[in-house]
Amino acid sequence: MDSLIAQAERKLLTPGGLATGDLERVFAQLMGPSIDAADLYFQHSRSESWLLEEGIVKDGSHSIEQGVGVRAISGEKTGFAYSDEIVLPQLLDASKAARAIAQGGNGAGKPLALNGARALYPAIDPVESLPNPDKIALLREVDAYARSRDPRVKQVIVSLAATMDTVLVAGSDGTLAADVRPLVRLNVQVIAEANGRREQGHAGGGGRYGYRELIENGRALAFADEAVRAALVNLDAIDAPAGSMTVVLGPGWPGVLLHEAIGHGLEGDFNRKGSSAFAGRLGQRVAAKGVTVVDDGTLPGRRGSLSIDDEGTPTECTTLIEDGILTGYMQDKLNARLMGMKPTGNGRRESFTQLPMPRMTNTYMLAGSHDPQEILRSVKKGLYAPNFGGGQVDITNGKFVFSASEAYLIEDGRITAPVKGATLIGAGPEVLNRVSMIGNDLALDEGVGVCGKDGQSVPVGVGQPTLKIDGMTVGGTAS
Amino acid sequence: MSAPVIAADRRQPDTSQQELDRLAELAEDVIRHARAAGASQAEVAASIDTGLSVNVRLGEVETVEHTRDRGFGVTVYFGGRKGSASTADLNPDSIRITLEQACAIARFTEEDPAAGLADAARMATAFPDLDLWHPWDIDTAQAIALGQEIEAAGRAHAGIGNSDGASVQAGQSLSVYANSHGFVGRERGTRHSLSLSLIAGDADGMQRDYWYDSVRAPGDFIGARALGDKAAQRTLARVGARGLSTRQCPVLFAPELARGLIGHLVGAVSGGTLYRRASFLLDHAGRQIMPSWLNIVERPLLPRGQGSGAFDAEGVATRDSALVENGVLARYVLGSYSARKLGLESTGNAGGIHNLLVEPGQDDFAGMLKRMGTGLLVTEVMGQGVNTITGDYSRGAAGFWVENGQIAYPVEEITIAANLRDMFAGIVAVGSDVDPRSHILTGSILLERMTVAGE
User: Fold this and answer.
1) With 70 as the cut, is the pLDDT of residue A107 above it?
2) B150: closest CA among B210, B196, B191?
3) Domain-embedded: residue B348
């Protein structure tokens, strides 16, 4: 079996006549007395996508991008340049531009030493993991199946996508690490129509494996079932209530609550700069007793997982909140160094054309002890929200939103009428103090999350058990 | 603007026309190869974007980024079968492989009778100079100094305790679209921006806000001082924000948010959502959707316009055209594909709208507050709670409670909700306070009523 580093060198360095030994020449140019750290991030990215709509596989696309990002850091200053040609002259040019951030003579980095992290996923090219005719057949099967489920299904859109990222990271601190990252995804969107009313339902999932793992055990058809079910529920939805009320969140994807309410606020950069509502609160109570939240990049095959982050640091399972007490931040190398902390394997970037930042991986709350039915039975009047679209947070005042795509009234301990999607709003440092019951049904999402920060998108995961929150504002229209 | 900075002797030679010619040659060459490979039609989009981006925080440079992004995409049609591929590498070998990939994909996609290029007769033939090319000859040191000046202006305000930094960005884009009708369109444009984000308050509660400017020509920027002042005033105004009880009331969208409402209209009348029957404005062309005094017109050829262009993403000539006339939806927003699906003609909107002007009313911002009397001024919305299929709208919001035409106090942690159909029909007035920073040009918009949810 070919090692990751050998695969990465062959894909990234060899075509331009480079070898890892040449990188030391680049560091000699990059480093100087006033440069604290420098790194090179080589990336080759291959992706494809297929789209079925109106029963026809209408569109397919393929793309290749590659290049190298060069970063030089002096104190809190970062100089950055990149090249889409991986050859020595371009690397030296980019280094010159990046290091212009600081003055000084020549130096050198530490000798590069291979960082052999454990691999959390296979080093495969998922584009090649299924013959093209089988991909087409899969799309058609999902479409036909979704349409067969109910005559009210009028439109089915199915998309299938795969990416293989090959990365090689070399740092002046001696880091040398490589990774081959597969990622696949299947999405189903259904529009149902009845009595002149139209509603939609979505479902999908994926992870860091090949197409076969994505579709085995009937998973593809289960996505179709779920999308149809959600669309049909929404056809009967009445106006959502407006105002503050008890909210019960379902397990799994509703964990987007954690991502927005506390996740972003615990990223190292915002805390170093004092711009987060959580800055300076390590060791303080920020959630009810029983609430434990982790960011875990080490789950095999998960969409948000990475064997190494984009700075070459092996990912970790970082406890952010333990039994209600704030215990940790997510760090990249720059912010860890400036805060006197350890990197946690959360340095991520969308591509070689952008700078790494502290980012989440898979963020979830550990299970509690309550049966989900018991939680629902305890609510006299409230909202049950088992599915969500996206969310957003203002990390400075802590206000965050997330939008339910499927919700129901809870009346006298029972789930009753479905209500239209509505946005929920709360304050991050407060909302987890209002968690009064935690279910025993921890689930992670199916693998659909995309997190945006400073214009950079990265795949992430979320999860949680069923949660009861005593009081959140629900943005409906019914009084 | 006041500060920088164009020293004629340092100006780099402008090679943009030669680079455009090179991209055009490449595009035409690939189209010839696609035809030789048996494609009945082909189209190519190629671009080169370059820029400098500097961030300054607490008086010190934080990041300096040099950007140069290249893109090349080809779409081939074998009858009604379509395949696309793209690469960021413009070397001949990569281009050849990219074309092969596109052709390989078209072997597996299925016959779609509506697929193909826009009609040849609709290709643009006039390419007026829209005054979009104004490279900003600013070097890193000057950009840092300008960022420092902007941030210092903001931090000079009492109560500003922290900064999220100032940014200075200069950018230029070259792009070519060509297709097998023989159409070759060249575009070049510059876009520069300044921004500042500040933080006020203390451990009991911080607030952050920002301001930015975005222009085609650096001479059109508001001054560094003005930008810093505006960011500081916006941030300080939010300190001490409270909640609101749940209620129904009039809502005034500040201009930079009003354009979002118009964006939802564009989304709902765009071909892609219509032929999928995924719009609450399905079959609404020719029907009243807004008050009868309201007019919205597309003006694709505005000099220095943020969305200006003589042709759309398929080469179709753009033209001035009403979108909403006397409150009636005058047309949809279509490219050739959705037009064929709907049995209509392309409106020159493949890739989106160009400049959209909402006809301004008489009242400036203060006048709009007076007209509202008592209600909610929204200056920020959060989240994605807009459902184009049903028109249901529910988003997080922050802003100010207004009493008797005067701002009373800042509010936060509230939601605003209604259905877009009612929101559009319930527009009371459009302000004269037009925000020039976007391709959607509108003043503030006053809505008769929304549900505000809070504590």
Assistant:
1) no
2) B196
3) no
**Per-residue pLDDT tens digits for A256-298:** 999 999 999 999 999 999 999 999 999 999 999 999 999 999 9
Residues 6+ apart with CB under 8 A from A297: A304, A305, A306, A309, A315, A316, A317, A345, A346, A361, A362
In total, the C-beta contacts within 8 angstroms joining chain A to chain B are: 238
Distance, in Å, from the CA atom of A420 to the CA atom of A416, rounded to the nearest integer, reads 13
Q: Are residues B23 and B107 in the same domain?
A: yes
Q: Residue A456 in contact with residue A357, Cβ under 8 Å?
A: yes
Average pLDDT, chain A: 94
A432 close to A257: Cβ distance less than 8 angstroms: no
CA distance B107 to B37: 12
Mutate to test the interface with B, among A397, A451, A470, A472 (most CBs of B within 10 A): A397
Q: Do B85 and A63 touch (CB under 8 A)?
A: yes
**Domain endpoint, select from B221, B236, B251:** B236
Q: Are B109 and B77 in contact (CB under 8 A)?
A: no
Give the H/E segment covering residue B366: helix B365-372
Residues B49 and B61 in one domain: yes
Cβ pair A303, A207 in contact under 8 A? yes
Domain containing B70 — which CATH number? 3.30.2290.10
Tell me what pLDDT residue A24 has: 87
B87 to chain A, minimum CA–CA distance in Å? Answer: 5
Query: Residue A34: what pLDDT?
Result: 81
Q: Which of B49, B61, B66 to mutate to test the interface with A (most CBs of A within 10 A)?
A: B66
In this structure, are B170 and B250 located in the same domain?
no
Digit-coded pLDDT (tens) for A388-428:
998 999 999 999 999 999 999 999 999 999 999 899 999 99
Task: Tell whether B98 and B203 lie within a shared domain.
Answer: yes
Distance from CA of A140 to the nearest CA of B (A): 11
CB atoms within 10 A of CB A412: 9
B8 and B71 housed in the same domain:
yes
In-domain check, residue B316: no
Query: Is residue B28 located within the same domain as residue B62?
Result: yes
**pLDDT band (50, 70, 90) for residue A1:** very low
A288 touches chain B (CB under 8 A): no
pLDDT at A191: 97
| Amino acid symbol at A148 | S
Average pLDDT over residues B79-98: 93
Q: Evaluate whether residue B331 is within a structural domain.
A: no
Give DSSP secondary structure letters for A195-228.
Answer: TTEEEEEEEEEEESS-HHHHHGGGHHHHHHHHHH
Q: Which of the pair, B257 or B4, is modelled with greater confidence? A: B257
Q: Could you tell me if residue B265 is inside a domain?
A: no
pLDDT digits (tens, 9 = 90+) for B125-164: 999 999 999 999 999 999 999 999 999 999 999 999 999 9
Residues B151 and B246 in one domain: no
CA–CA distance, A77 with A100 (Å, rounded to integer): 11
Residue A269 is given by DSSP the state H
Report pLDDT for B128.
97
Among B236, B269, B292, residue at a domain's last position? B236
Give me the pLDDT at residue B4, please.
32
Q: How many domains would you assign to chain B?
A: 2
User: What range does the domain containing B38 cover?
Assistant: 3-236
Q: Same domain, yes or no, for B213 and B255?
A: no
Residue-level pLDDT at A112: 86
User: Per residue in A299-319, pLDDT tens?
Assistant: 999 999 999 999 999 999 999
- Please give, rounded to a whole number of angstroms, the shortest distance from the CA of A45 to a CA of chain B: 10
Given pLDDT bands bounded at 50, 70 and 90, which one contains residue B5?
Answer: very low
